[in-house]
Amino acid sequence: MADPIYPLEANPQYDENIRALQDTDPARATTGLNPVFTKALNNTHRVRKDLDALKKSVEGPGGAANITLANGTTVEKAITDLDAGKAGLDPVTHKVKPEQLPPMDYDPTGTAAGLLTTHDGNGSAHND
Q: Which residues contact 21 (CB under 8 A, 6 or more apart)?
């Protein structure tokens, strides 16, 4: 006769409250050990089901765009919303377009500290 296997729930809920075994617990499989192991196995089963669903969603039509974010928005809609925003993001890279960036005419010699000192020493610099 084959050894029995742990019965896993068809649709387990993740439960992080797993009772710790105590030194005073009787070492009985049916009432002491198996309930603890079954709960841990059901948690693993829940995570596996969620990962399988995520993998199926990502590999399906639309790929990662099918993933729903914690706020209920799909990745595809979040990107579309960003592209429609004030920044006018590049539709391919989803980055700010170079022509929207300010000129990068900084002084590479590191004179910013001196300019800051001059600015802060100006009595009218922060009158607003």
A: 32, 33, 36
